[in-house]
């Protein structure tokens, strides 16, 4: 994995003041160095500057970027972040066409594929990626993002110049691009956060390349071109065939994503999804006489303080123990204490450039740092619940009937601690409702589908476009901030396309949650795991953690210069801190309850202060 950045102005000549623009590219590289600590370089010609930082995974010695190749006297240059999982097939086809390669890197395959077929080649790619290609002959810049948005790519346009980067912080290295936030940004933070509207970067005038889209920038300006989207169609396979195809797609996705010139590991919670990924990895490595490395995560003293609830019915460790024994992995248990969890709230903001999932994010960041000390590539079980319908809002009729985002059903909790001035000046409810209705209107429909099935399709679309993306962003920033590449086999677009049209009575046969996936995984993992009730990513239940957060928030309230002060109500906050938290009633997803609301406000204050954000 890598970090990419750059700027382009078709009428400019950056080489006239090359020292200045190389310095800007140097700042961009420095801002993104955590994404690629192994190698870095830059590229500057009259109309464009490109920067790249590399985390070496494939073809360690010859995959240098920016990479330039020529065809018929025209040069093409790429900076690329990602992994292409069908590299060998695509390379073989290009070789048969007469193209020659200087490396075994997927970067070169993408570049030469573009030279051969143009942007149509992107449709042949299976992987996670964001990249920029400069076509010197046509004087055009092409920005591309993978189908599901696993890899990030942000941009802004200023004075006929497009500035882009893997992370927003890279864009702020460009002269006179300043962090600002307006009422729309405040609505994103307090109304939708830690989610955000796809296509937006929350900061004023910062955008992201949409998943499955191309941004083409040339002398005619900027044009967005979609190359992939979900399509609704009748599902004609029998249940037995559906199970067989699902099993094949999952196994193939995991096997492809194991490609690496360095050792890989898996994150193993003991839940269904991570256990399936781990079992497949272990089986494939076993064929080579190798042992899989696995990691599981928990919190200090959680066994003592854990409180079972409808969202989190059981702890993970006993089930992780079963899987470790089953696959014979070399396993490491990692624990995070209260202080590390709280301190990493701020590092998580540094990684995401935005307030985020509070300690759900800071803990993952902490764990990724520990894992990255031993390896650079990890496979995870993320995204299965969004794709196969594992969350409560797919099953609970009352939640399904709500005319809003099902994981964030109550705006009152979100607004509970905000100041009256902010509440009177920003229509949070209207903004959230508009964002929700936009996505509902976009949902690909299937003619003749019943009302309940159509509603589940809407919820599935919301999950893929919103909830899943939030978790993918979390995984990318936490891992890449630590120099670790996290791969997500369930986010293979072939799985998403196929399961999208599988009817609910097959996804959830006889009322068994994710029954299709369980049947597809028979024989791979023990029945105790295969039929385990879902329990989300762990969080701490230690009472001292909430006290630590509360004291930090009180310290902020005592500082008249704290940037969050005008946005929250001191009396409301103090009353909230004096009341016991309800861990079983989250305000976002299944994990973010009372303590996470405090942690989120701490993140907002740090974000406003660190980025010196101007409210406009």
Task: Report what the structure shows.
The chain has 616 residues and is α/β, with parallel strands linked by helices. It folds into two domains: 2-195 and 203-226, 4-Layer Sandwich (Glutamine Phosphoribosylpyrophosphate, subunit 1, domain 1); 239-286 and 340-530, HUPs (Rossmann fold, 3-Layer(aba) Sandwich), CATH 3.40.50. Strands 2-3-1-9-8-11 form a six-stranded antiparallel beta sheet. A six-stranded antiparallel beta sheet has the order 4-5-6-7-12-13, with helices on one face. Strands 16-15-14-17-18 form a five-stranded parallel beta sheet, sandwiched between helices. α7 links the parallel β14 and β15. α10 (338-352) packs across α11. The longest helix is centred in the last third of the chain and has 31 residues, at 451-481. The two termini are 35 Å apart.
Question: Can I get a quick summary?
Answer:
By secondary structure, this protein is α/β, with parallel strands linked by helices. Helix content is 42%, strand content 17%.
CATH superfamily of the largest domain: HUPs
Number of domains: 2
Q: Supply the CATH architecture of the largest domain.
A: 3-Layer(aba) Sandwich
**So what's the CATH class of the largest domain?**
Alpha Beta
Q: What number is the mean pLDDT?
A: 93
Apparent shape = globular
Sheet/helix structural class: alpha/beta
The percent range for strand residues is 15-25%
Identify low-pLDDT runs. none
**Do you know the CATH topology of the largest domain?**
Rossmann fold
Number of helices: 24
Main sheet makeup: 6 strands, antiparallel
What strand line-up does the widest sheet have? Answer: 2-3-1-9-8-11
Q: What percent of residues adopt helix (DSSP H or I)?
A: 40-55%
